[in-house]
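Fresh eyes needed here. Kindly weigh in on this sequence plus structure tokens:
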Amino acid sequence: MIEHNTLRDRSVNEFDSIKAILIDPQMKSVARIDISKDARLSKYFGEKPRVAMKFPKGDVLFAGVQERAEAFTIGGSRPIPGSGLIVGRRIGPGERGPAHVRLADVVTMVRWTTVDAPPKPPATVRAIVIDPEQGLIEELLIAAHRLALLSLLGGEIGSHIRVPGNDHVLSPVPSPETPWWWRKDDLTFSSRSVIVGHDSGTDHFADVVTSVENLRTSVQFQAPGESCWMSYADRMAQGDQTPAA
């Protein structure tokens, strides 16, 4: 969020500065300020800003991308969270000219409002890994992002299916080799899979709803080239067998 003091400290002399207009919903102020004509705007926002609006004569309203409760509208626009900065059109590589829009006009167009900050995604979620080749059905705590799923699957996600409870079953891209299979009810999957929950309201990952106990009593496995299916208990027993000397 842009602060008046931050911008004042970064102001330069009149030969190296341009006039800009700062809109600060936290302070509920609209003010004309001086900023360096060749400064990166990310220095003021703390991040790369986005273009929120364009004005006649080439003026541009930049805003941050972080979600904040304090916001403003301008000229009937949608709420813009955080502070905004109006600067002039680009006049050269890395340089912008002064804002042409009148400060009084901006003041009349701005209205203060608030927006609901979206809930943050969880840091970790509970997921279940099913590996028919290893006879494995285990619950794990994983980071709540796609890279964690790629790591568990050993590669790109090939498919995902939504199942009751809003859980999602994710499987890797099919291997050219004949895989082990696993099935539950009328659904069949190839190779290793991960089951993770999904929050429809936020579109974030969530804790898996189904239980390991339920899966261990209902999942069946099939070996490559075999026609019969075996239960989790039988698969575990098969895996525990030691070849005769």
